[in-house]
C-alpha cells in the first residue's frame, strides 16, 4: 500500500481534477470542451488500469495460459470512447452555431450580449 | 427496442409527414408493449431477457419488475401524447427540411429513456443515458431563440459531467464486486470488505444522477434548457427525462446499496431531506419572481423534484409510494402545463408574462387549462397533486417529523403565489392590441394538452391505479433493504 503501487490511481485522479478544473475555470467554450474530454479520459484510465495483470495474457482457454488479463474493461471503455467522441462532436457543432449567431465563443461576451438583448426586449415591447 | 430501429428509417424517409406518422405508430406501440409488461409483472414476478442469449451475470440483461414497468408506461405514454402534439408545434417552430431529423432525434431519445429504465446492467444504463441525453441536447438546440444554443451547451457540459461521475461510480463498484449486473452487484456488495471504495462509489453515483435529475443545488442547467427548447420538447423533457433519472437513483439506493453496511451508516436520508426542502422553498420563491412563463414553470419543476426526493429520503413504504406517485403525477401535470404554455408561445410568439395581459378573453380554453394544471401543482383536493402530497404528509407524520409535514403544506402556498400571478395577468388585465388579435390553438395541440389535464383530474379522483401500483413498487424496492 505505497504511493508507487497505486501509481495509476494517482495519475487518474490528477487527470480528472485537471479536466474538471479546466471546465470550470475557462471561459472559452472550446477550451471547456477540451477539459471535458480530459475529464472523460481519466475514467478510461480508471477502468483499464486494474484490468491488466503483470504477466497476464489474453484470456485464451488452453494449456500454458494460467493468468489472464480481464478483457471486459477494454470492451466497456471502447464503448465509452465512442460516447465521448459523440459528445465532443456534438459540443463542437454547438460551438460552431453559437459562434455563427453570437460572433463569439467567450462565455462572458455571450452573457453580455444576452443581457443587452434583454434590455432591448423590454424597451421595444 | 423499437424506436431505435425506427430512427434511421426516419432519416431515410426525409419527409415531414411520413416521419411523423412513423413516430406516432412507434410511440403508441411502445405504450401497448409497456402496458402489457406492467400487466405481466403486476403480481410481483420479474421478467428477465438476456441479450444475445448470454446468461445474465455475464451478458447484458433486461430486467423488468414492477418499478421499472411503471416507469416504462409513464415514459411511453408521455411520448405518445407529446408526439401528437408535436405535429402542429413543430410545423410552426421549425423549417420544413429539419422535421424528419426532429422526429429521428425524438425517437432516439425515447429509445434511450426506455432503455435506461429497462436494463439491468449498470454500464448499459450509462450507454442509454448518453443516447437519450445527446439527442436531447440536439432537440434543445433546435429552439428558435439563439439562447437555446447556449442552454443546450450548458446542459451538455453539466450532463456529461453527471454521466462521467456516474461511470466513475460504476467503475469503482465493478472493481470491488467484479460484476456489472445490478442484481448480482446487490448480492455481492454486503460481502465486500472495502467500505471506503463503496462509499466513494455511492458518492459519485449520487452526485452524477442528481445532476441529471436536477436536484436543487445541481439544477442550474434546467431553467434555461426548459425555457428555450421547442415547446413540444419542453413538455417531453419535463415529463420524462428527470423522472427516469429518479428511477435510476431509486434503483441504486434501494436495490443495489440497500443491503450494504455503508448505506446504513451514512446520513443519506438527512442530506436528501435538507436538499429537498431547500429545493421546495428556494426554487418556488425564484419561480415567483420570473418574468417568463416557461422559466416560471421550469423553476417550479425544480421545486417539484424536491417533493419526489423528499419522499425517497424517508425510506419508508409510504414515503416511497409518495415519491413514485409524484413521479407520475408531476409528469402528467407538468407535461400538461408545458403543452398549454407551448400553445400560448405559438400564438403570442413569446412567453413573457407582461405580454399575456387579458389572455383569458381571447384564449379562454388554454387559460383555463393552465389554471387547472396550476391547481394540480398546488395540490388542491381532486387533482393528482393532492394525492402525492397526501402521501408525503402521511409519510412525514409516520416518521414522527411533523415539522416536515408542515413545511410541505407551507411550500404549497408558494405554489399558490406563482400560479396566482398567471391568473391575475391573464384574467384581470385588459388585453392589449396583440393579445386581442389572438385565436384559439389548433386542434392537434389543445386536444393532447386537454387529455393531460383530464388525466390530472382522473388520477386525482381515482388514485387506485397509480397509488396501488406505486405502493406495490415501493414494497418490492424495500425488499432489497431487508
Oligomeric composition of the shown chains: heterodimer
**Main β-sheet of chain B, in a few words?**
2 strands, antiparallel
Main sheet of chain A? none
Fraction of residues in helix of chain A: over 70%
Estimate the strand proportion of chain A: under 5%
Radius of gyration of chain A: 22 Å
How many alpha or pi helices of chain A?
4
First CA to last CA of chain A: what distance? 68 Å
Biggest contact: A-B, 33 and 29 residues
Question: Which class do the helix and strand fractions of chain B yield?
Answer: mainly alpha
State the order of secondary-structure elements of chain B, H for helix, E for strand. HHEEHHHHHHHHHHHHHHHHHHH
H/I helix tally of chain B? 21
Distance between the termini of chain B: 34 Å
Tally of strands of chain A = 0
Query: So what's the overall shape of chain B?
Result: globular
Query: Secondary-structure element order of chain A, as H and E?
Result: HHHH
Mean pLDDT of chain A: 79
Which of globular, elongated, flat, extended, rod-shaped describes the shape of chain A?
elongated
Unreliable residue runs of chain B: none
Please tell me how large the radius of gyration of chain B is. 21 Å
Strand content of the residues of chain B, in percent?
under 5%
Layout of strands and helices, then pairs:
The complex is a heterodimer of chains A (125) and B (482).
Chain A lengths: L6 H19 L3 H23 L20 H31 L4 H18 L1
Helix pairs in contact in A: 1-2, 2-3
Chain B lengths: L1 H12 L2 H26 L5 E4 L10 E4 L1 H28 L5 H20 L3 H20 L5 H31 L4 H7 L6 H19 L7 H8 L2 H26 L4 H5 L2 H21 L4 H22 L2 H32 L10 H4 L1 H15 L5 H15 L3 H27 L4 H4 L6 H19 L2 H15 L4
Antiparallel strand pairs in B: 1-2
Helix pairs in contact in B: 1-2, 1-4, 2-3, 2-4, 3-4, 3-10, 3-14, 3-20, 4-5, 4-10, 5-6, 5-10, 6-8, 6-9, 8-10, 9-10, 9-13, 10-13, 10-14, 12-13, 12-18, 13-14, 13-17, 13-18, 14-16, 14-17, 14-20, 14-21, 16-18, 16-20, 17-18, 17-20
Amino acid at each position: 500500500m505505497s504511493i508507487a503501487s497505486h501509481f495509476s490511481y494517482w495519475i487518474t485522479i490528477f487527470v480528472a481534477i485537471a479536466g474538471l478544473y479546466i471546465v470550470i475555470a475557462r471561459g472559452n467554450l472550446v477550451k471547456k470542451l477540451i477539459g471535458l474530454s480530459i475529464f472523460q479520459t481519466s475514467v478510461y484510465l480508471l477502468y483499464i488500469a486494474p484490468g491488466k495483470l503483470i504477466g497476464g495474457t489474453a484470456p485464451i482457454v488452453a494449456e500454458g495460459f494460467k493468468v489472464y488479463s480481464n478483457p471486459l474493461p477494454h470492451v466497456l471503455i471502447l464503448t465509452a470512447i465512442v460516447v465521448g467522441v459523440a459528445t465532443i462532436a456534438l459540443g463542437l457543432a454547438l460551438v460552431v452555431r453559437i459562434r455563427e449567431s453570437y460572433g463569439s465563443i467567450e462565455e462572458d461576451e455571450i452573457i453580455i450580449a444576452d443581457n443587452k438583448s434583454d434590455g432591448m426586449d423590454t424597451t421595444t415591447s | 427496442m423499437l424506436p431505435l430501429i425506427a430512427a434511421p428509417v426516419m432519416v431515410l424517409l426525409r419527409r415531414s409527414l411520413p416521419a411523423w406518422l412513423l413516430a406516432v405508430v412507434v410511440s403508441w406501440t411502445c405504450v401497448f408493449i409497456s402496458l402489457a409488461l406492467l400487466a405481466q409483472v403486476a403480481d410481483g414476478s420479474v421478467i428477465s431477457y438476456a441479450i444475445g442469449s448470454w446468461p445474465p451475470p455475464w451478458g447484458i440483461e433486461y430486467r423488468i419488475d414492477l418499478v421499472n414497468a411503471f416507469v416504462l408506461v409513464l415514459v411511453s405514454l408521455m411520448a405518445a401524447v407529446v408526439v401528437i402534439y408535436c405535429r402542429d408545434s413543430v410545423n410552426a417552430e421549425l423549417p420544413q427540411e429539419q422535421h424528419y431529423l426532429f422526429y429521428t432525434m425524438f425517437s432516439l431519445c425515447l429509445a434511450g429513456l426506455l432503455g435506461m429504465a429497462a436494463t439491468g446492467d449498470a454500464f448499459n444504463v450509462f450507454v442509454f443515458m448518453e443516447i437519450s441525453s445527446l439527442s436531447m441536447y440536439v432537440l434543445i438546440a433546435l429552439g428558435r431563440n439563439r439562447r437555446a444554443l447556449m442552454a443546450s451547451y450548458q446542459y451538455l457540459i453539466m450532463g456529461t459531467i453527471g454521466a462521467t461521475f456516474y461511470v466513475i461510480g460504476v467503475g469503482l463498484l465493478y472493481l470491488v464486486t467484479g460484476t456489472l449486473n445490478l442484481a448480482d452487484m446487490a448480492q455481492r456488495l454486503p460481502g465486500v470488505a472495502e467500505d471506503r471504495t463503496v462509499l466513494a462509489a455511492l458518492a459519485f453515483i449520487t452526485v452524477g444522477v442528481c445532476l441529471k435529475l436536477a436536484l436543487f443545488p445541481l439544477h442550474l442547467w434546467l431553467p434555461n434548457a426548459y425555457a428555450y427548447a421547442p415547446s413540444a420538447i419542453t413538455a417531453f423533457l419535463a415529463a420524462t427525462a428527470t423522472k427516469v433519472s429518479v428511477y435510476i437513483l431509486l434503483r441504486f439506493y434501494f436495490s443495489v446499496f440497500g443491503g450494504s453496511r455503508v448505506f446504513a451508516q451514512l446520513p443519506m436520508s438527512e442530506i436528501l431531506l435538507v436538499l429537498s426542502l431547500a429545493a421546495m422553498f428556494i426554487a418556488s420563491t425564484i419561480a415567483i419572481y420570473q418574468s417568463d412563463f416557461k422559466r416560471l414553470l421550469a423553476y417550479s419543476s425544480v421545486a417539484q423534484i424536491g417533493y419526489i426526493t423528499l419522499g425517497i429520503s424517508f425510506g419508508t413504504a409510504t414515503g416511497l409510494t409518495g415519491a413514485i406517485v409524484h413521479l407520475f403525477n408531476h409528469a402528467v401535470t407538468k407535461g400538461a402545463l408545458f403543452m398549454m404554455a407551448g400553445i400560448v408561445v405559438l400564438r403570442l410568439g413569446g412567453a413573457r408574462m407582461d405580454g399575456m395581459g387579458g389572455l383569458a378573453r381571447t384564449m379562454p380554453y388554454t387559460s383555463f387549462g393552465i389554471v387547472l394544471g396550476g391547481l394540480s401543482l398546488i395540490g388542491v383536493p381532486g387533482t393528482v397533486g393532492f394525492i402525492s402530497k397526501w402521501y408525503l404528509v402521511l409519510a412525514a407524520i409516520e416518521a414522527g417529523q411533523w415539522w416536515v409535514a408542515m413545511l410541505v403544506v407551507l411550500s404549497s402556498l408558494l405554489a399558490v403565489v406563482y400560479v396566482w400571478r398567471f391568473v391575475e395577468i391573464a384574467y384581470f388585465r385588459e388585453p392589449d392590441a396583440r393579445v386581442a388579435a389572438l385565436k384559439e390553438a389548433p386542434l392537434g395541440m389543445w386536444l393532447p394538452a386537454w387529455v393531460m389535464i383530464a388525466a390530472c383530474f382522473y388520477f386525482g379522483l381515482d388514485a387506485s391505479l397509480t397509488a396501488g401500483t406505486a405502493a406495490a413498487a415501493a414494497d418490492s424496492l424495500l425488499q432489497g433493504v431487508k
